[in-house]
Amino acid sequence: PYSGPSGDEILAKRKEYLNPSLLHLYKNPVNVVEGKKQYLFDENGRRYLDAFGGIATVCCGHCHPDVVDAIINQTIRLQHSTVLYLNHAIADFAQSLASKLPGNLKVVFFTNSGTEANELAIMIARLYTGCHDIISLRNAYHGNAAGTMGATAQSIWKFNVVQSGVHHVVNPDPYRGIFGSDGEKYARDVQDVINFGTSGNVAAFISEAIQGVGGIVELAPGYLPAAYSMVKKAGGLCIADEVQAGFARTGSHFWGFESHGVVPDIVTMAKGIGNGIPLGAVVTTPEIAEVLTRRCYFNTFGGNPVCTAAGLAVLKVIEKEKLQENALHVGSYLKERLTALKDKYELIGDVRGRGLMLGVELVTDRELKTPAKAETLHVMDQMKELGVLIGKGGYYGNVFRITPPLCFTKEDADFLADAMDLTLSRM
Ligand code: PMP
């Protein structure tokens, strides 16, 4: 049994010693002391179904024994920087990771986070093209360092001292956007921005395939192929941010961009890649990667043996346990159940997403799409009381984000949908 400090004691320490802008999701935050598969346990041993762990990096399930073994076995042998010496862990993982990507995307740079991966991708694109301008989507989240905060496009995540060189185009959001699901119409704004906001040449276009922080917004079909072709004509590179949608989460494909039928020039990843271990990566072509030889590029812990050993174990688990297929089957089933709730409750304005990356948007008026912010918090809190943890997102904070570990079962899906049903029925 757990004998550490209580949740209240931890909260008091957080208030005194930690970042004052730290968030927590609940009125009474859960003190999680253990995780196993798709479950988290609090200080009293109470079990919660974790339907948000995917966003916080877990794809194989909490503390998966194969990943834990890989971490322990490597830790007792060597943990060091991989920059100066040879070590097989980084090379083995780079090879396996490259084999999961299409085309000539074969060169891997390792980082410690998604932010670092996107920072590097943006710099590589600027070096390769000799241009500075970046095009990013409104409602995007790409990180919180200088360049990536510029690319991030939600005011709550931006500080006003960032100089970015980023142009934000109209978001191809099928639910709230003005062109519905017509991706090609939204893409016209990319051409407009190139024509009227730049010299006619750009460094890069960056986007998620499904916006995560932005509230599980699936880009309208046809958008990415049209936008990619405009950006390529303007000499720019296309960057796919797979930090959330990658690693089998969308079920139908291993990478989110694949369902849009495009092949990016640079792919960035983090979160699920290490199942909870700090790890990120940038994958690009040998020709593009070459630009970094103009100077020295160095990242002390990027690709360290412990993290890359974990990464390799994650890829093996995804394959061995058929987690992509599971994400497709269980995710499709859960989406059906959530869609049925939409028919039952006026409060649900939209149900969307793919595989185990699902969103439920709450509105107080379906015509006006008025964000139901308070209701969202209430439902999340009540579901927590019933033992189910879900996340929230979207600019208005009115979208549930359901992104569980990929080992989520049909029974878990039923439990989640039943808990949401019961909570909504009591409102
Ligand atoms: N890109 C996307 C799509 C993300 O969701 C996030 C994190 N929410 C990041 C980049 C940044 O990753 P990190 O927090 O690891 O820096």
Supply database-style keywords:
Aspartate Aminotransferase, domain 1, alpha/beta, binds 4'-deoxy-4'-aminopyridoxal-5'-phosphate, Aspartate Aminotransferase, domain 2, 427 residues, 12 helices, 2 domains, seven-stranded mixed sheet, 18 strands
Compile the SSE list and pairings.
Layout: H1 7-17, E1 32-36, E2 39-42, E3 47-50, H2 65-77, H3 88-99, E4 107-111, H4 114-129, E5 134-137, H5 146-151, E6 166-169, H6 183-197, E7 204-208, E8 210-211, E9 217-218, H7 223-233, E10 237-241, E11 266-269, E12 280-284, H8 286-289, H9 305-320, H10 323-344, E13 348-354, E14 357-365, E15 370-371, H11 373-385, E16 388-389, E17 391-393, E18 399-402, H12 410-425
Parallel strand pairs: 3-16, 5-6, 5-7, 7-10, 10-11
Antiparallel strand pairs: 1-2, 2-3, 4-12, 8-9, 11-12, 13-14, 14-15, 14-18, 17-18
The structure holds 4'-deoxy-4'-aminopyridoxal-5'-phosphate.
Brief description of this entry?
Pfam families: Aminotran_3 (PF00202). With 427 residues, the protein is an alpha/beta fold. Helices cover 36% and strands 18% of the residues.
